[in-house]
Design goal:
Layout: E1 5-9, E2 15-19, E3 23-25, E4 32-33, E5 44-49, E6 52-57, E7 62-64, E8 67-69, E9 71-73, E10 79-83, E11 86-94, E12 98-103, E13 110-111, E14 116-123, E15 126-131, E16 139-144, E17 147-152, E18 158-159, E19 165-168, E20 171-179, E21 184-185, E22 197-200, E23 204-208, E24 212-217, H1 218-229, E25 235-236, H2 237-244, H3 251-271, E26 279-281, E27 286-289, E28 296-299
InterPro entries: FHA_dom, SMAD_FHA_dom_sf
Protein name: FHA domain-containing protein
Domain FHA: 23-82
């Protein structure tokens, strides 16, 4: 079991592997630390989108083939220009066929998209999963090459394997591998009107049912995450669109981007057999999330 990642070669010849969700920038805790005054602290983000990895513009600029762009579909051999003459070469890309999901923690299920997590025990039955390393935590999960390891308290570290469970306090932890190719059914088919649990993480958004999960990435996830930030209430489409395409000044081009992304959302929901009225637009151009009485939203943006 492994995590999606890309290996960059920096101008000085160093090779650095960055996992999905990792930051490139000048901040000392960046996954790819670039000490250069032309680089922003949070310059760009590696994001898993569909079956590929993208490099997304954050506070810095990205150029590919001499043209500025806000997102780059990463491919082996690419040379990405960040600033001035600072070129990164894509050495290789690793895309596993399954995503790893952790159960037994607060706000479960949690996809393990970062390279390191700390397990913090607040109460005997309340385990919180925190991205990164936290000194004194009750346990840790981290990826190494193509392996995922877990260590609880003073016990030795061990490989995470299917069907294994671990106990922390009164919580039972288990890691499940689910296919990354769209909507997955792991048990028998579930009723189409059952409760939805929507977890928004901005560059990804997860729709969980009892036995299934749909994960959206990229612009569709950003659009829906913006609606979650608004509490699901109606909001004019242009306000949301200008948050996502902040550098696009021409309204007709903004509308084209909006319509294309909204169409992708509806197509994915339809193929996943999720309620088609989940996202609605009224005659005045307001968009909203239409939730059922038992649906739940978790905002992790």
């Amino acid at each position: 079991m492994s995590l999606s990642s890309v290996c960059f070669r920096t101008p000085d010849g160093a090779r650095v592997r960055v996992y999905a969700g990792g930051i490139l920038g000048r901040t000392p805790n960046a996954d790819l630390y670039l000490q250069d005054p032309r680089i922003s602290e949070a310059h760009a983000l590696v994001s898993l989108r569909g079956n590929g990895l993208q490099l997304l513009e954050l506070r810095g600029m990205l150029f590919l083939d001499g043209k500025r762009t806000s997102a780059i579909e990463l491919a082996r051999g690419q040379q990405v220009l960040l600033a001035g003459s600072l070129l990164l070469t894509v050495e290789d890309i690793h895309l596993p066929s399954h995503a790893l999901v952790l159960y037994g923690v607060r706000d479960e299920p949690r996809e393990l998209s970062a390279s390191t997590y700390s397990l913090v025990l607040h109460r005997p039955n309340d385990v919180v999963l925190v991205p990164g390393y936290r000194e004194g935590a009750e346990g840790y999960l981290w990826s190494s090459a193509d392996e995922l390891r877990i260590q609880l308290r003073d016990q030795p570290a061990e490989l995470v394997a299917p069907e294994r469970v671990w106990t922390l306090g009164e919580s039972v932890l288990r890691v499940v591998a689910v296919p990354t190719t769209g909507f997955v059914e792991t048990l028998s088919a579930a009723p189409r009107d059952e409760r939805l649990r929507i977890i928004a993480r901005y560059t990804s958004i997860h729709f969980w049912r009892t036995t299934e999960v749909l994960i959206m990435h990229g612009r569709p996830a950003m659009l829906l995450s913006e609606l979650v930030r608004c509490g699901g209430k109606p909001v004019p489409w242009e306000i949301i669109a200008r948050e996502i395409w902040s550098r696009q000044s021409e309204r007709h081009l903004l509308r084209q981007n909006w319509d294309r992304t909204l169409g992708r959302i509806r197509d994915q929901l339809r193929r996943a057999e999720i309620r088609e009225n989940l996202v609605q637009v009224d005659r005045n151009g307001n968009i909203e999330l239409v939730l059922g009485p038992h649906d739940e939203i978790v905002d992790e943006t």
